[in-house]
Amino acid sequence: MNNRDSELIGGMLAEKGxxxxxxxxxxxxxxxxxxxxxxxxxxxVTGNLRKLAARKKKDPDLRIGVxxxxxxxxxxxxxxxxxQVDIVVxxxxxxxxxxxxxxxxxTEKLLAVNNKKRPxxxxxxxxxxxxxxxxxxxxxxxxxxxxxCIVPHVRGREVSRPKKNILNEIKGLVDRGFxxxxxxxxxxxxxxxxxxxxxxxxxxxxxxxDIEGLRRIRFTTSHPKDARKGLFRAIKELPKVCEHLHxxxxxxxxxxxxxxxxxxxxxxYKEKIALLREMVxxxxxxxxxxxxxxxxxxxxFEATERAMEEIAWNxxxxxxxxxxxxxxxxxxxxxxxxxxxxxxxxxxxxxxKRISLAKNKTMIGSEQEVLV
Length: 372
Ligand code: SAH
Ligand code: SF4
Description:
The structure is a single chain. By secondary structure, the protein is α/β, with parallel strands linked by helices. The chain is built from 13 helices and 12 strands. The protein has 2 domains: 2-112, Methylthiotransferase, N-terminal domain (Rossmann fold), CATH 3.40.50; 133-361, pyruvate-formate lyase- activating enzyme, CATH 3.80.30.20. It has a 4-stranded parallel β-sheet with strand order 1-2-3-4, sandwiched between helices. Helix 9 (229-237) packs parallel to helix 11 and helix 12 (298-311) packs parallel to helix 13.
């Protein structure tokens, strides 16, 4: 999602005559499009800002901006403790960036963090970092409030883009030679809620599938509480939809899932995967796992290890828990010691490597369709 926002920002600035340079030292404007999902990402931004302080002193014309989720979350801190920063812009305000940058000569510091619904806007000089595969936003924000997650707090409530805008964007991409799109949303399964023209995610997939010249459709992310037979049928029946589902489990322990406010149990997840595999036998599966959530005991972690063996995803992203105030779990004690988090993290990574390798080996000699 941030990659896509960066493309949009690049496009808007290109319209104003800015150019991307290869080396940081050659830039007159440096913008950080930030992520707040884990502390580590924020620490890298503050580290980079500190490094730039000296250069800004020597070169007061240098413009520095902090954009995205961290701008939303830490607006006061950024304004007070980082005098080198000129603009602070939240994810709902990205269209204000060119105007704010133009005003930095007259005003000391500029802030745009209204956290309202992001307005729709077509960027004429739309930039894409790839040439055959592109990200396409289908919705913004999230209504789920998983207890550990900062996203709803910084990206606001869920809003779907109208089908027409999405289809036009994809048709434009196909005209430019793109072959594959990845539809983006925090919870794509709830696409369409709140739109005046009623539509489900499956219906959107059908409409995208009908676009001539497009070869492949991917999407991310699905939520296990909402992924159902209708979605699995779309994966099975729509020829352009890739046979892959990224379905974050987060934990194999029902106690932890409940504390995470995920609204499903491990057995529900397992049943859904069994149904999907029955309908699409060779489906590729991936997941996200958080280890070290507050009160995660050895038996909870073992449940996650068991889930990994049982489901046998093709790949898994494994994250160490990171408290994100004001997300609800940040009020629980972060009581799993760092060494234990590290140990569990390494344990799961090794287990997943073994499973991925075994899965990959079963594909040797098979015939697959690939995008070169
Ligand atoms: N909307 C998507 C993606 C959310 S962020 C979804 O629901 O899957 C991507 C992943 O980051 C999450 O799936 C989760 O595994 C991880 N994550 C989110 N908040 C986290 C936190 N506080 N600590 C560690 N990992 C986190
Ligand atoms: Fe965060 Fe949960 Fe929403 Fe994903 S579904 S963005 S994890 S609150």
